[in-house]
## 1
Amino acid sequence: MFDHLEIRVLPPGPRFPAQVRFWVNGEDLVEEAVGGSGPYAGRGPYVADALPAAGPSPLRATGEARRLELGEPDCTGDCCGILAVLVQRFGEIVQWSDWEVPWAAHTPAPYPPPELHFDAGQYDAEVARAEADRWWQVYS
């Protein structure tokens, strides 16, 4: 059974421009791994970086493994680290593995998310849909 990816763009707020969130199997991956509320609330990557208008998204999976930043704590990645994953395509499977998870010195080390496996067709279609949906540019 494959995992299911949904890419959502959150509108800009008072402190940050529009950002991308990744929902996997119905759960907000950034919120689960980085935290969703309080002083250590996390944020996803800025939409202009994750879904650039001038070229393909870094979310696209290829046969060459590369590290993809998915989020960071509100205090910035320089402080507590970032949420990052190794993305690679293996034929009709896109794999997210080898997680890097942020954590604060005053909390126990977090557990990384499990290795995820997406059907390449569903994954590619979701990335293409997110790249084509430019509603957020109205706010930029």
## 2
Amino acid sequence: MTSQHISDAELAAQPAAYWTGVAYEALIAFTRAQQAGLSFTQPQFWLLRNLSKNDISPDGHGVAIPELQQAMNTYLRPEDDLAAEAEVLLGRGWLTRDAEGRLWITAAGDEARANLKQHAPAIRDRIHQGINDADYVTALKVLRQMIRNTGSPLA
């Protein structure tokens, strides 16, 4: 399907699942490309966030890869390899591993997490360019209603 020169009536007949899939893939690819240009990956950022007491981790304690995979299961992609990504962060000194195999964020890792997080608003701004907040909210409300209409509890 192409999005060029489609009337409102034609758009109204388009399958939402197709367009949400296209949007998902485009947004993930764009976000990951932007992050790669800054020398980090989305899964690396998620690892740092999930291990930092200054972000997602409630206590900053070490966590094993299987537990991290479980915590991230709603947004990990099939190609994401947390063990391999953790090795990169271990090599950078951003993580350490204890005798039980749990990963811990280092002070340098937490500083890197904070620095990496500063890029998120610019990436979001680029994605939202030309879209006002009211239109964005309306789009999300429509998607959430479609999700509810399918019987999913996720909306």
## 3
Amino acid sequence: MTVLPDADTPVLIVDGANVVGSVPDGWWRDRRGAAERLRDALAARPGEEEIILVVEGAARGIASVPGVRVDSAPGSGDDRIVELAAEHVGRRCVVVTADRELRERVRPLGAECAGPRHVRPHGPPGPQVPPAP
């Protein structure tokens, strides 16, 4: 039985390619493996947010795990993130990306934006979702 998050649970939409690419740790040699490591790090985060990891390209098809739904974009990952943000209008939604153009596309939908350091394993400690403005 799948438990669906309620409308009060914040949703965190993670731009997998952008976050993986934010640290020069050799991810380009194994894009799929890098996305799986990010997924696993996200699953280990404490907190109550719903996490959606959007992957594209070589990372498509990695499995979801408890705590992280993996969404394989059929085309552009950015376009899929915008679609997901639109699906969550009226609910607290944070898009994690450093991509300025993507940030400009999701903000009119009411999404907040945070940089990759908010979810990378070496990122700063603190709230799971950035504080509301």
